Amino acid sequence: MGRGHAGTGSRPVPARRGPRFGGRFGRRIRPRPTIAVVAALAVAGAGLYAALGPAREGAPAAPPHPDEVATAFAGWRTGLQERGPKAAPACAGGGEALYCAARGVGLARLDPVTGKVLWSRTGTVEEEAPRAPVLLAGGRVGAAAPTGPLRTYAAGDGAPVWSVRSDRPELYRPAGSAVVLTDGTGGVRAVDGRGGEELWRHGLAGFGAPRTGPYDAASGLLTVFEGAPDGTRTRVGAVRPATGEVVWRRDLEGDLDPLGRTGDGSLVLGSLHQGTQTDALVLLGPGAGGTGSVRRLALPHRFDLRGAVVRGSVVYLLDADGHVTAFDTAAGEGRVLWDLETAAGNVSAPVLGPGDRLYFSVQDGRLLAVDTARGALVGQTRPRLADGRLAYASLVPEPLVAGGGCSGRRRTVRCSRWTRATRRPGERPADLRRAP
Questions:
Q1: What is the separation of C-alpha 416 from the centre of its chain, rounded to a whole number of angstroms?
Q2: How far apart are CA 101 and CA 132, in angstroms?
Q3: Residues 254, 282 contacting (CB under 8 angstroms)
Q4: Whether the predicted model's global pTM rises above the 0.85 cut
Q5: Quick check: 112 and 406 in contact, CB under 8 A?
Q6: In whole angstroms, what is the distance from residue 302 CA to residue 300 CA?
Q7: Residue pLDDT tens, the chain, 436 long
Q8: Most CB atoms within 10 A, among 86, 144, 333, 335?
Q9: How far apart are CA 39 and CA 37, in angstroms?
Q10: Contacts with 426 (C-beta within 8 Å, 6 or more apart), sequence order
């Protein structure tokens, strides 16, 4: 359908097509401090590559500027999977480390700058799409197959610490010092993330089979939600992870899915049209016991939403066709700040990096970087090749930010680096090229 902008209370915002990067590098440009962006792309199997983004924490942040462009430089490639059909690894970043689960490899820690495997622990991970590891309290990292136990290891040396088993598959979400596990049938329990002791096991008052949403570190509460079978309402609540106490619950109109929180603590939920496309945002304002005001903000069009991220009052929405929209919820009826058409198809969920960067990956293996201050595409890697041919992935995991940027390909981990640089007037934009 067309991309009109009626119902937002703002003027139509023309879609902008991002620049296509090509050609040789121009004059030499001045690099600035960098950190790496990690992306796990399932292009042709198991492996990763990487790209560097904005400055490391503590380094001076460069202000947004029209002359900033992205460039790529040295990369690395490390093999993980050793047997079986090709499958992309699933990774998580934390601090200066990259943790990956891959088929035949239960868990491995890599240096995201060099790609060196610091330690690995074998496990029964045979799934085509293994679950990403989770970072837990007390310097622990957890990994689990969909039908296996949650196993945790010491982040420093990979020593096994504890594991929890279940009679049925469970989804787990870190929430402060606890890990909350749900089995999809109403079974909910929590374990201590440091020692693995079970903290509680019971249903949640007022909920049948709840799902977990975002954890709010400021309040120490975990969002839970459950939709009505007919899609007319959604029950939203907050739970204390350490005790299982339901602090509040509230029924909201519509089929809603939590997306995150704004800077003032408002809970942002996406409203689904006929269970498939997102056509509005619902904001539950901060207030004791979930008593905050409720605002429903119509979006400029229906989104086949691959993901949304929230920073301050702005929600960045990524459509399946690569269309990015920045929507400001601070205005009374909301307003579109900018639209960006990237011409990318079958994309991952987006992630925010330090400063003003947003990243997402594409099924052909590209990793794209968007400047959220200007609504401009500032860099992209070239498509990944398999045996000299363009390959496409059916599953496209989202990027992640760590000490190095990586994405999945075949049985390897592959990383390159992006940095911001200042281009002088008249110079050609640099080509963001795939590292060899």
A1: 19
A2: 6
A3: yes
A4: no
A5: yes
A6: 7
A7: 434 333 333 333 333 333 333 332 233 333 333 345 544 433 333 445 444 443 334 433 433 333 333 343 345 667 776 666 666 777 887 767 888 887 767 788 988 777 888 998 876 555 556 678 888 988 999 887 666 678 899 999 999 999 988 777 788 899 999 999 998 899 999 999 999 999 999 999 999 999 999 999 999 999 999 999 999 999 999 999 999 999 999 999 999 999 999 999 999 999 999 888 999 999 999 988 889 999 999 999 999 999 999 999 999 999 999 999 999 999 889 999 999 999 888 898 998 987 789 999 888 878 888 999 999 998 887 777 666 666 666 667 677 666 444 444 444 444 444 433 323 333 333 333 332 2
A8: 144
A9: 7
A10: none
Distance CA 155, CA 137 (A): 10
Fill in the amino acid letter for 82.
E
- Residue appearing with tokens 């610091």: 118
Q: Looking at 20-130, which runs of residues are DSSP E strands?
A: 30-31, 35-39, 49-53, 68-79, 90-94, 97-102, 105-110, 117-121
Reference 209, options 193, 228, 191, 232; nearest CA is: 228
The alpha carbons of the chain give a radius of gyration, in whole angstroms, of 22
